[in-house]
Design a protein that fits this description.
By secondary structure, the chain is α+β, with helices and mostly antiparallel strands. The chain has 39 helices and 16 strands. The strands form four sheets. Strands 11, 12, 13, 14, 15 and 16 form a six-stranded antiparallel sheet that branches. A five-stranded antiparallel sheet has the order 3-4-5-8-7. A hairpin with a 3-residue loop joins β3 and β4. α19 packs antiparallel against α20. It is globular and about 110 Å long.
Length: 962
């Protein structure tokens, strides 16, 4: 700012600085504003110098935080001044005081346009800078063609062109229609050949915005972006002024890699190879140094490279290298680098097959829980939560319990919730789960929600074998001198219901159990007393033979609380006292609590609701490729429509399968839901195939609306392709309303479906506007899928509708799908699945949305296929062969001879069976060329069915043991 000779402005600034307090400053500002307002009323008498001086004063006052609600016209009028000093003041003050919707800006559009198309480069730069900061839709409509000409002009200096690129970026964001896609694709590619790095950086910023809106039109820019990265990685033709601490233009590298992430794939092998070489160079050349500025720049490039590696689904070797590099970062002393390492390692969990590599750094991640910086501790907790599965759950949960003793109070609630969820999802057995939750309540009772101890009650009530153990543990905690009130609640319930199971143990007589509970009565609040009263009544009922002294003592307590002011306590006391006097009828009234119905876990639902706050975190926390435990039943939350959803997972094993409460007959419900979706059509069954897995997974029928028929294609090829062809047939069912969709999908939809038949996470469907991903967890005859609906563009996707068309053998419930998906956002839609009986039919997702003028409607098969309800199990030779020989023949024992297909090596056959959740049992058959395998199939009607498989040379047998 050139303010030489403005003595009045200098004096005013000096007066402001000399003010002793805020009040003096306010009085001086009010005085000056009054003076400026008076002078502006007589504008004709103002010289350009005076007008410029007073406008500068207005800007200074505005920068101090005071409202300036006049003088805007004077500032705008300076834009049209013929001389640079006045024009500079006009542009600067207008950019600062006004926003894009101010009415006075319309008066300056013609003047700004004249400066842009003029020959004076200084005026061009001033105009482009102002439009790039506050230009709105009207500026976009009026100035976009002129700005484009400046950007493409070879006669303009690079300084003007790079400002024009940033100005056009602003105008495009305000009105995307100003950039004609058809005409700009080649021009954009031409701009990426620019040698000046300033113009190139601005052009790549523009490209990022363009490809985020429509990447299909800019495929020609992809190889150019790779060449830019190659040029920078090799430090070729990079001026010294664009080298930052030895790193060639890190800003341009970051922007270029971000632009590449908007392209779904790189199909050209040469371009892909070149890009991976560049990424390999970045990964190999990044290390931690002492210079903070160099670290910041190199890590910005590195972390964008990591994001690109994940996006491109690189080879496992490169993924391992990325994780190893992040492992170095989380071990350094610099806290900022440790934080970034933990955060990016958490993002790596989104990639399949990387979780096992991340587990190698588990010890260092646990060490980060003890870091002095709370932000690092939070990231370490998130990463441990994300990387947990059945193999390391016990170690991680025990570490979290140990850390709970010293954790900050700000973290204890989140820590307790995550430990409870991990214990529930991955418990090796229910007794361990009870131990964990009781420890949580004991160590952090103030931070434990009621939902957590409700779950313990749920599991103990539904599992008879667990009840004596839980009662003994509850008594053990109550024996402590200081017990949290939540521990009293859960212990009172468990001991009231099941203390009679401990009656033969020392110190566990009804009188002693009552004394332990009654000691806690004076210390608890009015919300716990009703639970204690219920426990007293239950203990009295279980006391056989009756103890008159205990009875009198408990009756006295009931009598005492009959006049309590709390209605709940008073009602229980009155009713229990009256019931206790009914003698033999007491046994029926106080019978053991019935089993709880199986529902979705409220803890897991709560965690998902919290994770919905950010799409990124939700994608991280719902981990791919996780195999969950068979130990737990997930329960206790109703969906919005009030119907209890089916919930997964009861404790199941080969030896004992406890009964689970379930609806006896779902057929009528299934028929009703099917009729609502239209008359479902099925494919005629195919004759037996040469494919050895055709009896397991194919052919599958597609069910759809009236008139939609999908013919299941079958192939005699063996191996993985053969197994998948058993479920082939187009993954998109033809739509009757719209004969053709103008929007074409990206990638092969049938291949995506086949891949999801063998794994639990991946992309089900993708087009230029939306991506549908699936993550699933399967336990016994229950499944829980989450549909990830991601909007890939900067405009909202509207009229979103999703309808599940279930076959008769599946009970499915999809949560509410939002009508609109915001720009660049992702929403989650949980889908509950219950397998009612064996069948090879497939459910269909009828999905439609509108983007701009395009209305898209597709029907996609959901990978809830037969093998998802397999649970691998290992059997010994003593168990296998007697049961195998006991199977007489069809339908329990099926045999098929495969001829005329490619020979399959034993390792390939092993991998094929493992991918379908069938466990190989090595060493059972004396013939080494034979494969013996087993699994368990679950459905609600059949419960657990042991399935035995024996493969002899070119023959395969499938046996089912009911």
């Amino acid at each position: 700012m050139a303010m030489h000779g403005m003595r009045g402005l200098s004096v005013f600034i000096s007066d402001i600085r000399n003010c002793q307090n805020k009040e003096q400053e306010r009085l001086r500002v009010d005085k000056e504003l009054g003076n400026v307002r008076t002078r502006f009323k007589n504008e004709k008498g103002l010289t350009p110098y005076e007008k410029k001086k007073y406008v500068w004063k207005m800007l200074y006052i505005y920068m101090l935080g005071y409202d300036v609600d006049f003088g805007h016209m004077e500032a705008v009028s300076l834009i049209s001044a013929p001389k640079y000093p006045e024009k500079q003041v006009g542009y600067i003050v207008t950019s600062s005081l006004l926003n894009e919707n101010h009415d006075f800006l319309r008066l300056a559009i013609n003047t700004v346009r004249n400066d842009i198309i003029g020959r004076n480069e200084t005026f061009q730069c001033l105009a482009l800078t102002m439009v790039g900061n506050i230009g709105g839709r009207e500026f976009a409509e009026s100035l976009a063609p002129d700005v484009q000409k400046l950007l493409l002009s070879s006669s303009c200096r690079p300084l003007v062109r790079k400002k024009a690129a940033l100005c056009l970026l602003r105008l495009f964001r305000k009105n995307p229609d100003v950039v004609n896609v058809d005409g700009w694709a080649d021009r954009m590619a031409q701009l990426l050949d620019e040698r000046d790095l300033g113009v190139l950086t601005s052009s790549v910023s523009l490209l990022v915005a363009l490809v985020s809106n429509n990447h299909e039109a800019y495929w020609t820019c992809l190889p150019k972006c790779v060449k830019i990265l190659e040029r920078l990685a090799r430090n070729q033709d990079v001026p010294q002024e664009y080298t930052y601490y030895g790193i060639p233009s890190p800003w341009l590298q970051v922007k270029t890699m971000r632009a590449l992430q908007y392209f779904p794939t790189i199909e050209d092998p040469n371009t892909r190879r070149t890009l991976f070489e560049v990424l390999q160079r970045i990964l190999m050349g990044t290390d931690v140094v002492k210079n903070v500025n160099k670290n910041n720049a190199s890590h910005a490039v590195l972390f964008e490279a990591l994001a690109l590696v994940m996006h491109l689904d690189a080879e496992k070797e490169m993924m391992s290298q990325c994780v190893a590099l992040l492992g170095k970062f989380i071990a350094v002393r610099e806290p900022n680098i440790r934080y970034l390492g933990l955060e990016n390692m958490t993002r790596m969990l989104m990639v399949a097959d990387v979780q096992e590599i991340i587990k190698r750094h588990q010890a260092q991640i646990i060490t980060s829980l003890k870091d002095p910086d709370i932000s690092i501790r939070r990231r370490a907790l998130d990463l441990l939560y994300g990387m947990c599965d059945v193999t390391n759950a016990k170690d991680i949960v025990e570490e979290l319990l140990q850390y709970l003793n010293s954790a900050d109070f700000a973290m204890r609630e989140e820590l307790s919730l995550k430990a409870a969820i991990l214990a529930e999802k991955f418990a090796p057995d229910l007794s361990w789960y009870v131990d964990v939750i009781l420890q949580l309540i004991d160590k952090a009772g103030d931070f434990i929600s009621d939902d957590i101890w409700f779950r313990v009650v749920h599991f103990v009530t539904n599992n008879d074998d667990l009840q004596p153990y839980a009662a003994a543990k509850a008594k053990e905690y109550l024996d402590k001198p200081a017990v949290h009130e939540k521990m009293v609640k859960v212990s009172a319930y468990i001991l009231g219901e099941y203390s009679h199971l401990l009656a033969q143990r020392p110190g566990c007589s009804p009188k002693e159990i009552f004394s332990i509970l009654h000691e806690k009565l004076p210390t608890v609040s009015t919300t716990t007393i009703p639970i204690l009263l219920s426990a007293y009544a239950k203990i009295l009922m279980h006391t056989q033979p009756p103890d008159q002294a205990l009875q009198n003592q408990i009756w006295a307590i009931f009598s005492k609380y009959e006049s309590c002011i709390e209605a709940e306590i008073q009602q229980r006391a009155v009713e229990y006292f009256a019931l206790c006097q009914k003698g033999a009828a007491l046994m029926d009234v106080f019978a053991e609590m019935p089993k709880f119905p199986e529902r979705q876990s409220s803890l897991i639902r709560k965690a998902e609701d919290v994770e919905l706050d950010t799409a990124e975190q939700s994608a991280i926390k719902l981990r791919a490729q996780q195999q969950t435990s068979n130990a737990l039943v997930v329960a206790d939350q109703y969906p919005a429509n009030g119907a209890p959803p089916p919930a997964p997972i009861g404790p199941l094993s080969l030896v004992k399968v406890p009964s689970m409460s379930s609806t006896e007959d779902h057929n009528s419900t299934d028929r009703a839901s099917s009729q609502e979706n239209g008359t479902l059509s099925k494919v005629d069954q195919q004759p037996p195939s040469a494919d050895l897995l055709s009896d397991i997974l194919g052919p599958l029928a597609i069910e759809g609306p009236p008139g939609s028929t999908v013919q299941s294609e079958h192939n005699a090829n063996s191996g993985l392709e053969g197994g998948l062809d058993a479920v082939d047939g187009s993954a998109i069912v033809p739509v009757e309303v719209e004969e053709t969709n103008t929007v074409q999908p990206i990638g092969n939809i049938a291949e995506r479906f086949h891949a999801l038949c063998l794994k639990d996470s991946g992309v089900l469907y993708e087009d230029p506007y939306i991506q549908i991903g699936i993550k699933a967890e399967w336990r016994a005859h229950h499944g829980r899928l989450v549909l990830f609906l991601g909007n890939k563009n900067t405009a909202p996707v509207i009229s979103v509708q999703a309808l599940i068309l279930p076959p008769a053998h599946l009970k499915m419930e999809l949560s509410l799908v939002p009508d609109t998906i915001p720009p660049r956002a992702q929403v989650q839609c949980p889908l509950e699945v219950v397998n009612l009986r064996p069948s090879r039919d497939v459910a269909v997702l009828d999905f439609s949305y509108k983007f701009g003028a395009n209305m898209v409607n597709v029907k996609l098969r959901i990978p809830a296929v037969l093998n998802k309800f397999f649970q691998p199990i290992s059997v010994s030779a003593e168990e296998f062969f007697p049961q195998w020989r006991s199977l007489s023949g069809p339908p329990l024992k099926l045999q098929e001879v495969v001829r005329g297909v490619r020979p399959m090596p034993l390792p390939e056959m092993t991998n094929l069976l493992n991918s379908f959740r069938i466990m190989i049992c090595p060493g059972l058959d004396p013939n080494p060329n034979n494969l013996v395998a087993s699994t368990t199939f679950y459905s609600e009607s059949t419960h657990a069915i042991l399935c035995l498989v024996r493969n002899i040379f070119c023959s395969s047998y499938l046996g089912l043991l009911l």
